[in-house]
Predict the 3D structure of the following.
Amino acid sequence: MAATDFDLFVIGAGSGGVRAARMAAQRGARVAVAEDAPLGGTCVNLGCIPKKLYSYAAHYAEAFEESHGFGWSNDAAPSFDWAVLKANRAREIGRLNSIYGRLLTDAGATVLTARAHVIGANAVEVGGRVYTATNILVATGGRPVVPALPGAEFAITSNEIFDLPVFPKRLVVVGGGYIACEFASIFRGLGAQVTQLYRGEQVLRGFDADVRNFVAAEMRKKGVDLRTGADVERIERGADGLQVHLRDGAVITADSVLYATGRQPNTAGLGLQELGVALSPEGAVIVDEHYATNLPTLHALGDVIDRIQLTPVALAEAMTLVDRLFGSGQRSVDYELIPTAVFTHPSIGTVGLTEHEARARFGKVRIYRSDFKALKHTLSGNTERTLMKLVVDDASDRVVGLHMVGADAGEIVQGFAVAMKAGATKAVFDSTIGIHPTAAEEFVTMRDAVA
């Protein structure tokens, strides 16, 4: 084909798009990135980073109370300033936006601050100008959606929750996934009266059953009014706030109603359908093992392909694609044993199979489980408990699932994920010396199977 303006044109400057653009440019490719929102995508602006900052903030009220058991006294009751938290978060996010911009420009990529449309197998239109590219990458991520119901216009999503003008003293959270559970925990910790509504039997579908039940119980202990089997019929504006009507006739009054019931790939308006690019019924871009669509020059990765919606997964996919387009092509992404954390209170860390999945795959498995009060809480007065669980394939003795609910669960599980990736067996866990006194040592001291 004739010479193009760029070797790679990236649409979307989230985690996957920025990584792909930067790595390709560093390898000498001519790269452009188009983005009409702040750089960094969902994770930096409306997801992982601000959410964890707010999670940190939400722990302080509890920490002030816990300090009394360790000899500390507070002469004045602590108070929370929503405006200060928002301003400090915004400043940090702005700093990160600038860093992402420098990463791209320092690598030699061209950054276009406008929305892009794919108009051909090798052509993209941005701001009225057409650019040609040997390869095009769609990395536009996803967005939260609110289902159609009367009064849906009164609901907010995770996009708006971080920057509400007034702190919602009464918050209704609709949904049972990890985003819903995280925000219910966070705003309860910040002092809101939180009601969480989920129409299913138990929250956190897809997680290990013990984890689901344990987290739900702990969230209720901390004051979240978690109601399962609860289905919203409509939302109305009332004199005292928003009125959330349930199908069973109950009515809940709230200052804000957060819907966290699902996300949708950002493919609308990109021109993909017009070009015949294969999309799933939900709008996700369908790609092969090399992240190529049915148009060989068009690629996609990250949340827009709706495989595993995690920032580190998008980064790994980006590195794999760049290696195929501008390197040896030997790199690949292994979607097995991907660790993840959920920042509920207490938090969740998990890697590998649930007990149900392991029994379906291997047949005979051994289960090791421990439920205890952490050392800190022997003096803190906090009733929070910690859960740890190992799932072991009986035939090979390999640890195929590891789950934790408790303080710093994500920090702890990350290291064990390395061991599991290397094929660690239960015998290896048993022969490992624990660090005492820590919660993490429980994973290498559980000796008796419970199932």
The mean pLDDT is 97. The chain has 14 helices and 21 strands. The longest strand covers residues 129-138.
